[in-house]
């Protein structure tokens, strides 16, 4: 077998120019796939992270069933105290209690039904980028303040200016009438039309008083240092709330399943493009292998006449194709991996992307995701396709007749 391997390797360099051209085609496709897949996976991480940081957070502690049916009575008891306990146990500052109700918001001229959110201003900055997106006025000062901030689109619809008062009329947790009149101190622009035209925020303590919530809230929002830390953080939080069976911990794919579906759809679309690229490269490589076999028909005929079996010759041709493919893949992985590593530290940005994202307090730089899968998945698919392409020329050898092959022109 060692001799067959040596012969297969030596045969590659009988036509060095052809070998390098074919290896270059394989290397280019492998380099492109390695970089594009690492960039694609990195963009998914950025998409998830930026989407969650706007408002949702990486995970939330909620009452069982609250996600599907948002009832005022489905609360987390002693929410602020539990949030403090989670901050101490996990070492994370980005843990904030929230409450949500619904009210009729009325200005001097118009009225709209809106969701009203009670937040802890001192901790909300860690779980949401909304406090950094206040474009006019300021954000909420503290948990005891009696004031509001709302989306800029909602302010325009209500024809409100900074300092104007907004009347809220809703229903409290105990069924009582929840009514208050509070001044507007800021307008935010999140870039999310749904939030900008509907959301009203007030300090949690004020919300609890207006909506008769006591010390309860509806969710505790948690954000870890990175997207990769979510499983470990969730395990810790689950252990900490295990003594409260009425509570559940939901991570991002349960809170916003649409993001995961969008990623899966984009991945399928991208892989269709990748497969098309691989097929084009494979067809050109198959042509090279076929030419190689046809040019050596007389050589194979002599070897058959000397006693070599067709299977042994087919194995020799397959080994040549494997060596050629591995040579191209090795070059492609090294070059593509080097580019991915560089941009992993330097960051990759499309022209104008940073400026657009900066308007909403979000990073506009993609960091390619380095992993064993991202480095090997594309090259592995190329390897399979290329080896399959070499089967056709190799199988042709089984049909050769020694006398006819020797006299072939």
TrEMBL record:
Instruction: Look up keyword Phosphoprotein and say if it applies.
Output: no
Q: Can you provide one Gene Ontology molecular function annotated for this UniProt record?
A: transmembrane transporter activity
Which GO cellular component terms, listed alphabetically, does the Swiss-Prot or TrEMBL entry include?
A: plasma membrane
Which controlled-vocabulary keywords does the entry list? Cell membrane, Membrane, Transmembrane, Transmembrane helix
Return the InterPro entries for the record: ABC3_permease_C, MacB_PCD, Macrolide_Exporter_MacB
Q: Which residue numbers delimit the MacB-like periplasmic core domain?
A: 19-239
Membrane-spanning parts: 20-39, 271-294, 326-345, 365-391
Q: How does it sit in the membrane?
A: Multi-pass membrane protein
The places in or outside the cell where this protein is found are: Cell membrane
- The ABC3 transporter permease C-terminal domain is annotated at 273-402
Q: Which family does it belong to?
A: Belongs to the ABC-4 integral membrane protein family.
Protein's recorded name: ABC transporter permease
Organism source for this protein?
A: Candidatus Muproteobacteria bacterium RBG_16_64_11
């Amino acid at each position: 077998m060692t001799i067959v391997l040596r012969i297969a390797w030596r045969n590659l360099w009988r036509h060095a120019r052809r070998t390098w051209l074919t290896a270059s085609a394989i290397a280019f496709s492998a380099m492109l796939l390695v970089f594009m897949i690492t960039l694609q996976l990195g963009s998914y991480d950025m998409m998830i992270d930026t989407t969650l940081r706007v408002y949702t957070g990486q995970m939330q502690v909620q009452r069982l069933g609250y996600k599907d049916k948002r009832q005022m009575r489905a609360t987390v008891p002693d929410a602020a105290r539990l949030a403090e306990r989670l901050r101490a146990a996990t070492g994370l500052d980005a843990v904030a209690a929230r409450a949500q109700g619904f009210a009729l918001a009325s200005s001097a001229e118009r009225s709209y039904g809106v969701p009203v959110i009670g937040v802890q201003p001192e901790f909300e900055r860690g779980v949401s980028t909304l406090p950094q997106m206040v474009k006019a006025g300021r954000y909420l000062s503290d948990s005891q303040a009696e004031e509001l901030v709302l989306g800029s689109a909602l302010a325009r619809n209500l024809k409100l200016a900074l300092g104007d008062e907004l009347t809220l009329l809703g229903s409290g947790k105990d069924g009582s009438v929840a009514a208050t009149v509070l001044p507007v101190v800021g307008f935010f622009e999140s870039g999310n039309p749904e939030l900008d035209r509907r959301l009203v925020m007030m300090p949690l303590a004020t919300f609890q008083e207006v909506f008769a919530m006591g010390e309860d809230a509806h969710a505790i929002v948690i954000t870890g240092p990175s997207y990769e830390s979510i499983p470990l953080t969730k395990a810790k939080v689950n252990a900490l709330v295990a003594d409260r069976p009425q509570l559940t911990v939901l991570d991002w794919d349960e809170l916003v399943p649409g993001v995961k579906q969008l990623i899966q759809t984009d991945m399928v679309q991208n892989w269709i493009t990748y497969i098309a690229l691989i097929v084009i490269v494979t067809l050109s490589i198959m042509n090279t292998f076929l030419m190689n076999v046809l040019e050596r028909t007389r050589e194979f005929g002599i070897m058959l006449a000397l006693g070599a079996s067709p299977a042994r010759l087919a194995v020799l041709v397959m080994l040549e194709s494997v060596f050629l493919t591995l040579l191209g893949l090795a070059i492609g992985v090294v070059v593509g991996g080097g580019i991915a590593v560089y941009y992993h530290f330097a960051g990759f940005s499309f022209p104008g992307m940073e400026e657009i994202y900066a308007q909403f307090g979000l990073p506009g730089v993609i960091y390619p995701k380095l992993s064993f899968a991202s480095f090997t998945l594309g090259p592995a698919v190329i390897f399979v396709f290329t080896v399959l392409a070499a089967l056709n020329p190799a199988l042709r050898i089984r049909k050769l007749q020694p006398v006819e092959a020797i006299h072939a022109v």
